[in-house]
């Protein structure tokens, strides 16, 4: 299903971030994840710098775990621009939202930085702006995530 989504994506070099999810209880899914990282980071050169988050899901199934945290992190961090987290989408108290919010924040900063670099300007508002400017920037960019389905906050 994931591969289908990828082949349909024509402008991979224009994406702001990539999230790859595997199951900690399925070594095949981890191998597929590494195949995807090979594709993104080595075959698909324009996305080399694109922030990429790899998530080991299903940590609630500890008794079925076959992919170790240390091993997975070590493999993933070898790829440029990659970070690694683990979570459980099934455990209601898990930090899925925190992980995604933090990654989105990172992609927005890096995407703004890339745009500014492409436009040939010297500084980045996202990384060297005053705290006030940065706060206003994120408030604007995150306002879309704080709304419920009716559009109210
Ligand atoms: N125990 C547990 N089950 C999960 C978790 N996340 C997803 N699942 C279950 O795993 C199954 C597959 O989840 P999907 O959301 O369909 O994910 P998918 O990537 O399309 O899954 P695949 O069928 O493996 O390709 C479903 O039965 C989910 O309920 C998790 O964190 N813990």
Main sheet: which strands, in order across? 1-2-3
Number of helices: 6
The overall pLDDT average reads: 77
CATH architecture of the largest domain: 3-Layer(aba) Sandwich
Fraction of residues in β-strands: 5-15%
CATH class of the largest domain: Alpha Beta
CATH topology of the largest domain: Rossmann fold
Instruction: Give the termini separation.
Output: 33 Å
Helix content: 40-55%
What profile does the largest beta sheet have? 3 strands, parallel
Radius of gyration over alpha carbons?
A: 17 Å
Low-confidence stretches: 122-131, 144-153
CATH superfamily of the largest domain: P-loop containing nucleotide triphosphate hydrolases
Keywords: Hydrolase
Enzyme class: hydrolase
EC number: 3.6.5.2
Protein name: small monomeric GTPase
How would you describe the overall organization of this protein?
It is a single chain. The protein has 153 residues and is mainly alpha-helical. The chain folds into two domains: 1-94, Rossmann fold (3-Layer(aba) Sandwich), CATH 3.40.50.300; 96-148. It is built from six helices and three strands. The protein has helices at 2-8, 27-43, 69-77, 96-118, 125-128, 131-142; strands spanning 18-23, 52-57, 82-86. A three-stranded parallel beta sheet has the order 1-2-3, covered by helices on one side. α3 links the parallel β2 and β3 (82-86). Residues 122-131 and 144-153 have low confidence and may be disordered. Guanosine-5'-triphosphate (GTP) binds next to loops. Guanosine-5'-triphosphate binds at residues 1, 57-58, 60-61, 88-90. It is an enzyme of class 3 (hydrolase). This is small monomeric GTPase. Its EC number is 3.6.5.2. Belongs to the small GTPase superfamily. Ras family.
